[in-house]
Every structure is written in structure tokens, then in C-alpha cells.
Specification:
By secondary structure, the chain is α/β, with parallel strands linked by helices. It contains eleven helices and 27 strands. The two termini are 31 Å apart. Bound molecules: alpha-L-arabinofuranose (AHR). The site of alpha-L-arabinofuranose has 10 residues, from loops.
């Protein structure tokens, strides 16, 4: 089939905030313990962090990592994770029915993020706790010295403040599964009061207020409007979360699920702007899509995991090739909305619904979804351009008018590079794509990276870690000033053009 696209420097969406390539580490399963931290591992450094995992995270160039939850944060006492490790309490962790040993806390996590070159996006507990504990944590992390909590941090060996800039006001507070679940008005009030005191301690911080846990929550939209009415002038971003699965084994429908993400983003933008108008405010509230991914493979297995174990193998989705394609479509969706989505976190990073897997005391490897994220994070920096796509479409079980071709374009002016990210959703046909690159005269194809596989269910494992991986191909060339590409059926594509 044929498709066309027009890309012009004039069709600007906006500068991409690199934080849309963020991720998430929760105290959950083997994310922290056995994932990033395993002092007995042969590759552990002097602080107990796995060097093999550090290298893989660095490869992804993740600029910001949300921590410590997730559902976990709603029952967490941050004070349990500071000071001498041998004195830290073991707790019953009620979000995931595990034992939390508190060997890793805020200081250790900050040290780890320095090793991987990321900043921390810290969540405070608004489930069992409130403004007091939140402002104390800001003081502990960000105040230089001369107060109880800042001096306590210095006693703990951290003379300089951590200067954590982005903070989440709780997690998924609209969800009945959440410890300390609240109505929109209850949450809106406590979020507002917490935001005030946190910013009084450090006015330079940015705050993310909780939106709905997903677009299909019954309270969706009303929740956002009410919460924003309470908090609008005190916060900077509102959160969005979404996870998709292919429970019905319907690939065409599954790959269309990024359209739901697109609708979700558009709706939340409208609600933010509605509250802005209602309040006659000059301020724009942006979006933090701080949990997104595919999540469904491990749901049944998780029901068999006994309660109260330390670092059990929870949420260990083994991702297949079609999952990587949907993750690619979701990344394209985030890039296309980068004028309003300023932060996004692939949930999560290691072992728990993650691009990186590890074996306790053993190997680490890249899951299929590692690759589209790697490409977007590496080449998706610069200005997002509104690629005008003309593609044949299909209807699936839940979605109408799904374009076979999903694409986004990013122009990096500094490097004089244009990158096109494209997914061909067709199960049976390649797309012959003709792209009008009118303002990019003289640009040549640097490379066309593609990822496809004859088996949509193909996975990467410890024993076969390279089964699904990207390769360079010769499917793109410039002809008469047009970019002519072939996108194989069911494929992820990165087409890079540059002056050299
Ligand atoms: O990422 C896994 C869980 O999904 C998080 O803890 C929670 O916020 C969401 O429901």
C-alpha cells in the first residue's frame, strides 16, 4: 500500500522537553532489590549497585526517574530509608504485599541516579500521610543547611542538597486500590495544602498533581476538573497514567490502542484549559504522562506469589515484538503532543514491566520494548514537527479509522538532522512511503533502522537476548528531492536524515 507525508520546518509542534523520555523505579518486586541494587552480585560496585544495569540504563539516556512509587508511596515513611542501614525497619508493604527492607532509601537512590545520569522525580505520600511529612522531605532533600532535616541529611553524609526539582503529590489517589484513596474534593484540598508548604520550603520546585489512573475510570474528567479547581495556581503539571494489554490476542486492535492514549491527552489538555479559562488564569498547566506502557502478561502469575516475601518476581512482563510496536506508537503519540506533554515516564525501568531484565546474581538483557525507547530517547531530541500523514486506514474491534502508518518527525537544528519515527501497523502489507521533505534540500539518508519479526509473539530471553532487535536497512533513499521509503509490514522504523 502507499502513503504520503509532508514534513516542513514551518509546521512546528514545539521543542521537545527531554524529560518525555523519563522512566520510573518503584519499590516493587525486583525493581530495586535484584534489579538496580544487589550487593552480592559479582558486578556490584562499592555501594551495591549492579554495574551491568547501570550501563543498560545509561544506554537509554533516561533524563528523569520517578521514585519511589507508584502504589508503594501511599504507605511509605520516607524516614525509614535514611540513616544507618542496620537500624532501618522492615515493614509490611501493603500495596504489593511484600516485605520492604529499606536498604535503599532516598539517599541511595539519588546516588544511583547520579551514576546513570538522571535526575529524580520524587513522589510524596498523600495516602497515609500529608503536608507535614512532605515538607519535611523537601527540607531533607533540598534545604542547604541550618535546619533539623537539612542537618540530618548532612549527618547522613550528604553535605550538599540533592536539589530535587520535580515532585509528585501522591499517586493515583482516585483509585480504590490506593492506600488512602480519596474523592476528588478530599484529594484536591490536601494536594493544595501540601503544594503550598512544599513550595514554601523550596519555591524552585515543580509539582505534579494526580490526574486519573486511566481514561476509563468512572470519575475521569470530573476528577481532573475538581482537582485542578482546588490546586491550579499551586501546581505545574497534572499526571496521566495508562497501560494496555492484548488480552484478546487481536494484534490489529492492540496496535490501535495508542489512539486511546492520544484521546486521553487531548481530553486532559482541554480540561486544563477549561479550568484556566474559568479561573481567568494566565498560567498554563502542562501534562506529566508519568506512567505508560504495556502491562498484562504477568497479571495471572502475580496472583500466585505468596505474601510477605522480599523482592518477589512481581509484574515481570516478558515483552514480545508486538508490544514493542505499540510502545513505538505510544512514543510517537507523546512526541506529537510534546507542546503540552513535558514529562513522561515509561513504567517501569528494571524487571517490573520494564525494558531491562535481570536474573538474580546473573545476567541482564534488553527486552523488545527497549529498542523503540532507546531510539526515541537518542534521536528524538529537538523540535517536534507536525508530519502531515496521508495513510490508508482500517477499523478494528474498538477503533475506527486507524491509520496503518503512525509517524512523527523531529528536527534537531543544532545537528542539522531530521529523524522520522514510523510504525507500519499492517499485518500483511509493506507501505511505500513518499515523504515531501521540502525544507531539507541537500539532506541525505544517514540510516534507516528497522525492527520487524516474522513472529509477533517473539521475545528476548536470557538465552536468546538478540532474538528481536533492530537492524540497519537500505529501505530509504532520496529521489528527486523526495524521501522514498519502504516500511515492512508490522515494523518499527527510524529514518535519519542529515546534511553529511
Ligand atoms: O507501575 C505499576 C503500578 O501501576 C503503580 O504502582 C501504580 O501507580 C499503577 O497502578
Amino acid at each position: 500500500m502507499k502513503a504520503t507525508m509532508i514534513i516542513s520546518k514551518d509546521f512546528k509542534i514545539g521543542e521537545i522537553d527531554k524529560r518525555i523520555y523519563g522512566s520510573f523505579m518503584e519499590h516493587l518486586g525486583r525493581a530495586v532489590y535484584g534489579g538496580i541494587y544487589e550487593p552480592t552480585h559479582p558486578l556490584a560496585d562499592e555501594k551495591g549497585f549492579r554495574k551491568d544495569v547501570i550501563e543498560l540504563v545509561k544506554e537509554l539516556q533516561v533524563p528523569i526517574i520517578r521514585y519511589p512509587g507508584g502504589n508503594f508511596v501511599s504507605g511509605y515513611n520516607w524516614e525509614d530509608g535514611i540513616g544507618p542501614v542496620e537500624k532501618r525497619p522492615r515493614r509490611l508493604e501493603l500495596a504489593w504485599n511484600s516485605i520492604e527492607t529499606n536498604e535503599v532509601g532516598v539517599n541511595e537512590f539519588v546516588e544511583w541516579t547520579k551514576r546513570v545520569g538522571a535526575e529524580v522525580m520524587m513522589a510524596v505520600n498523600l495516602g497515609t500521610r500529608g503536608p507535614d511529612e512532605a515538607r519535611n522531605l523537601v527540607e531533607y532533600c533540598n534545604h542547604p543547611c541550618g535546619s533539623y532535616y537539612s542537618d540530618l541529611r548532612r549527618i547522613h553524609g550528604f553535605e550538599k542538597p540533592h536539589n530535587i526539582k520535580v515532585w509528585c503529590l501522591g499517586n493515583e489517589m482516585d483509585g480504590p486500590w490506593q492506600i488512602g484513596y480519596k474523592t476528588a474534593n478530599e484529594y484536591g484540598r490536601i494536594a493544595c495544602e501540601t503544594a503550598k508548604v512544599m513550595k514554601w520550603v523550596d519555591p524552585s520546585i515543580e509539582l505534579v498533581v494526580c490526574g486519573s489512573s486511566n481514561r476509563h475510570m468512572q470519575t475521569f474528567a470530573d476528577w481532573e476538573a475538581k482537582v485542578l479547581e482546588h490546586t491550579y495556581e499551586h501546581i505545574d503539571y497534572i499526571s496521566l497514567h495508562t497501560y494496555y494489554g492484548n488480552y484478546e490476542n487481536d494484534t490489529a486492535n492492540f496496535l490501535a490502542k495508542s489512539l486511546d492514549m492520544d484521546e486521553f491527552i487531548k481530553s486532559v489538555i482541554s480540561i486544563c484549559d477549561y479550568v484556566k479559562a474559568k479561573k481567568r488564569s494566565k498560567k498554563v498547566v502542562n501534562l506529566s504522562f508519568d506512567e505508560w506502557n504495556v502491562w498484562y502478561h504477568s497479571r495471572e502469575a502475580d496472583k500466585q506469589i505468596p505474601r510477605w516475601s522480599i523482592a518477589p518476581p512481581l509484574l515481570e512482563d516478558i515483552y514480545n515484538f508486538e508490544d514493542a510496536l505499540l510502545v513505538g506508537c505510544m512514543l510517537i503519540t507523546l512526541i506529537r503532543h510534546s507542546d503540552r506533554v513535558k514529562i513522561a515516564c515509561l513504567a517501569q525501568l528494571v524487571n517490573v514491566i520494564a525494558p531491562i531484565m535481570t536474573e538474580n546474581l546473573g545476567a541482564s538483557w534488553r527486552q523488545t520494548i527497549f529498542y523503540p525507547f532507546l531510539h526515541a530517547s537518542t534521536f528524538g531530541r529537538g523540535c517536534a514537527l507536525n508530519a502531515i500523514v496521508n495513510s490508508p486506514r482500517y477499523d478494528s474491534k474498538e477503533f475506527c479509522d486507524v491509520p496503518y502508518l503512525e509517524a512523527a518527525a523531529v528536527y534537531n537544528e543544532e545537528k542539522s538532522e531530521l529523524t522520522i519515527f514510523a510504525v507500519n501497523r499492517s499485518l500483511d502489507e509493506a507501505i511505500a512511503l513518499e515523504t515531501d521533505i521540502r525544507d531539507f534540500a541537500g539532506y541525505k539518508v544517514i540510516e534507516h533502522i528497522t525492527m520487524d519479526h516474522e513472529d509477533v509473539k517473539a521475545v528476548n530471553t536470557k538465552d536468546n537476548p538478540m532474538n528481536v532487535r533492530p537492524v540497519k536497512c537500505t529501505n530509504s533513499k532520496i529521489e528527486d528531492g523526495k524521501l522514498m521509503s519502504v516500511l515492512n509490514k508490522l515494523s518499527w522504523n527510524v529514518i535519519r536524515l542529515g546534511r553529511q
